[in-house]
C-alpha cells in the first residue's frame, strides 16, 4: 500500500486567475497495481488563464503527461481520474469535462482543446499522405472540407511550410521539424481555443526547437490561443511561457510568472532543477545534478515528498505536507515550509537577474 495519502492543502484562492479558460481542481490519477496504489497525479489544482502560455515543467516521470491527459479526460485505462475539470468557452456555458459522454469528449478534444504529443512520426499514419489526415479530421468532425482545407493551407503557410507540397507528401518524406510543424497545423485545423503540447520539440535539435517556439508565439497571437506547453526543459520554455508550474512527485510544487521563477524560485526543487540544467552562461563544472532519485508512485514519502532530497528538510517536512502558499507575492506560490531560506541555502550557479515587480 502507498504510505502517502493525498494531503496537499488546496486552498482554492491560491489557484484562481481572473479569466480562466480551464479550471483544474483536485485532479488525481490512480492505477491499482499488484504492489499497491500508484498515485501518479496527486491532488493537482490550477487555473489556466485565457490567452496565456503556461509551461508545465519537471523531471521525467513527475506526472506532467498525466496532467495533460487529465485536462482532456484522456487518461489511459486502467487509470482512474477524479477531480473537477471545467472548460470555459469564449461564449457559452462552462463545460464539466469529466461529465461528458463519448461524443461530447470527442468534440471537446479537437474543437475546443487540442493536443500535440511528442514524436510527430508516430502520430501520422505512414500509408496516408499528410493531406489525408487533414481531410479525415475535418470529415470526422463534420466540418466543411473545402473551407477546412483552406484553413489547413493557411496554417501550414503560417508555419513556413509549402502547403501543397506538404499536403501531397507522406510524413516520412518530410524532415522531423517539418513533420512537427505539420502536426501543429493539423491540431489547429478545427479552430480550438487551447493547444496542449506534450514535449512537442523534444526530438528536435535546439535550433529547430527555438524556431518552433517562435512560430507558436506568432500562431498564438493570430489565432487567440491559450497554450499549455509540457517539457523537462525549464529554461527553454521560460522564454515562451508567461507562467510556469513546476511538478515534483506527481504534485505541483511551485507556480509563478516565468521571470519570477527564473530569478527567484523559492522551492528547493525548482532551484536545484535550474542549477541542474545545462546553461551557456554556466561552466559545466557548475552544473549540479540533483542528488537522490524521484520517488516511486507506489511509495511517495510522507510529509513533503521532496524531503529525502532536500538540504532544508527538518522534522516538520518529514511529517507534514507544506501545502501551497503565497511567497514573495500573492501570485508566486510554493509548497515549502522553508521557502524564505531557499535562496541562501541553494544559490544559483549563474547570475540570474532579479526582477522586482
Ligand atoms: N499506463 C500506466 N500505468 C501505470 N503507471 C503509469 C502508466 N503511464 C504512466 N505511468 C506512471 O505515471 C507516472 C507519471 O508519468 P508521466 O508520463 O505523467 O510523467 P512525465 O512527467 O510526463 O514524464 P516524461 O517527461 O518522461 O514523459 C510515472 O511514474 C509513470 O511510470
TrEMBL record:
Membrane topology: Peripheral membrane protein
One Gene Ontology MF term: ATP binding
Swiss-Prot/TrEMBL keywords: ATP-binding, Cell membrane, Membrane, Nucleotide-binding, Transport
Listed InterPro entries: AAA+_ATPase, ABC_Ni/Peptide_Import, ABC_transporter-like_ATP-bd, ABC_transporter-like_CS, Oligopep_ABC_C, P-loop_NTPase
Family matches, as PROSITE patterns: ABC_TRANSPORTER_1 (PS00211), ABC_TRANSPORTER_2 (PS50893)
A Pfam short name: oligo_HPY
Location within or outside the cell: Cell membrane
Main localization, broad class: membrane
Domain ABC transporter: 24-274
GO cellular component: plasma membrane
PANTHER family xref list: DIPEPTIDE TRANSPORT ATP-BINDING PROTEIN DPPD, OLIGOPEPTIDE TRANSPORT ATP-BINDING PROTEIN APPD
Protein name: ABC transporter ATP-binding protein
Organism of this sequence: Saliphagus infecundisoli
